[in-house]
Amino acid sequence: MIPTRHHLVPEIQGLRAVAVLAVLFYHLWPAAVPGGYVGVDVFFVISGYLITGSLFKEFEATGRISVTGFYARRIRRLLPAATLVALTVALCLPLFARSQWPNIAGSLVASALYVQNWFLAAQAVDYLADDAKGPMNHFWSLSVEEQYYIVWPLILLPLIALVRRTAVTPRAAFGWMIGLIGAASLAYSITLTPQNPGVAYFATTTRAWELALGGALAVFRARLAPPPFVRAGLGPAGLLAIAAACLAYSDATSFPGYAALLPTLGAAAVILSSGAQSPWSAAPLLNARPFQYIGDISYSLYLWHWPLIVLYGELTGRAIGPRSGAVLLLASLALAHLSKIWVEDPFRRSGFAVGRTMATGVASIAVIVAVGAAYLAREALEPADAVVQGKPRGALAMLDPKYDWKREDPARMVPRLEKVRADVSSAYAAKCHQTVEATEVLTCDYGNPQAGTKIVMIGNSHATHWFPAFEELARTQPIYFRGLAKSACIFSVEPIYDGDLKRPYTECAQWSKNVIDWVARERPDVILISHSPGEGKVTPEALAATWKRLIDLGLDVRHVRSIPRPSFDVGKCIESNKEWIAKCVPRRERALRRNNLYSTAKMLNVEILDFSDYFCDAQHCPAIIGGTMVYRDSHHMTATFARSLSEPLREKLAPFIGIKTADQ
Q1: What fold, for 394-653?
Q2: Residues 6+ positions from 647 with CB-CB distance below 8 Å
Q3: In the structure, what pLDDT confidence band is assigned to residue 661 with cuts at 50, 70 and 90?
Q4: Mean pLDDT on 389-403
Q5: How many C-beta atoms lie closer than 10 Å to residue 480's C-beta?
Q6: What is the band of 382 on the pLDDT scale with cuts at 50, 70, 90?
Q7: Cβ-Cβ contacts under 8 Å for 550 (sequence gap 6 or more)
Q8: Domain extent listing, the chain
Q9: Where in the numbering of this chain does the Acyltransferase domain appear (predicted)?
Q10: How many whole angstroms separate alpha carbon 153 and alpha carbon 573?
Q11: Residue 46 burial (CB < 10 Å; 0-12/13-18/19+)?
């Protein structure tokens, strides 16, 4: 998203408008433009074309490249508006739920340092990451471009030395470098996208080829020189390619990979068509005043629109409709217009010397980093628990006939609301919860390996959130607990399609086979299975085929029934609703339904360990029980509440594995 330069050709200005409007409409009305995110890819091609062209022309004209001068120009054009938006988000941070502050503050720091894309890539493989749409998330594409701006001139410096010492021409040197980088990046993008689409989407390495494509256009455009009639047809063809991607693609498309070729080649075709005089070329449309105006403010428009959308959702709790979308669109245009006039243009036209510009840029980045770091430090120093009278009873409170959960006070519960998302099993810190990509069997071990009773639990995060209960149980009972869990994995030897991966989750199937081999060697006393139900993904019959492999080995297999599942993020609901009892407590019949796992257990006559009565009374499943927050999101319990289930676990397990009960 490069700010405009008035000497740029009109078609590129109009192409900027197409790109930013695609992104804007996708964010406002995704059902109408489900693939509008490809506007970012169009921007990447434009950036590669303009920046490489600028550097190439400078080298051809002077025989050198002024790296510091190049950086100073980028700072003057990019940093002022970005700093304004980042500081505005920081000022608005108190308007967001307290539980979101760490993630937003981290995004501020990552955006200021232009590594937001890697920050989001890390979250894409982190099962614990907050899936909220942060107001700084859109800075990921700016980070990709800024990394390109920083690294690209440095890569070109050795080429300059090569050209000076050999007979290699500047065009050939630039061309070979661009070609090698572009080909390697495209190959990596095609390879990584089906394997790990979350990382592939944000990684600089999978996007570099798009910038390289624009760079190749800049270096070889004069050599390409298509005939006038071909150039006239390229513009409409390119726009149709971009439009086709916007309408045919969706969040289910495996992207970038091969799919990114359609919009990027479309953008390249439009750039090649610039200057065409034919009335049926793309010029009349792209050169029209509305497109030129939107292109002129496209950078600020991109910066402002997303924080406004996120803030609207946070304050209203409503989805964007036709009217609210129109208001947000107008507000984004107004802020972009003002930013262009009062921020972008004055700084771009300033006569600051290179040194002063660089110092100002560093100072701006430092301010944003300091603000974000201050929020992070404040959250880190806050105590994890609220002050309560006595030790919270947690799940055990449900055994008390006099207990009334409606008298619970969110201000006096543990963990505190802002700490709820971080209240997770120690398995994550120990890195024994297996990631999406790996298939090795990792174990989270608690208790004495020499203990007489060996318990194994198999599943995904819906197993891992039980681990704190077993960790607590192992402190007092002669058991050796080993947890086997893999992110988003449904225990099945047959690959199951995963919507996030956009392909069959083959790593899960292989891990499941490895688990069966592992338990065949270890032969624990009891195996507990608990994972997400996989409704719509797998049938009870398919699950039963995998469970039966364990039963056929002569192993004692049990099922831990899934906990009640609200249809909303409980912590956010409580934080934003004073009447939390009416709005944040689901009814039992809705939150606690039989699922594929339950049906599989019944089909195989497998024992079901049901703890539902520790989560629900006859009608409701409270959000707070015994002074303890039950859920850390919409379907995982907090580690604190899980620990309070250690006593019920002991009672459930005692009859068939011989551990001590409370009266022994």
Answers
A1: Rossmann fold (3.40.50)
A2: 396, 662
A3: low
A4: 82
A5: 19
A6: low
A7: 516, 519, 527, 557
A8: 10-377, 394-653
A9: 11-331
A10: 49
A11: buried
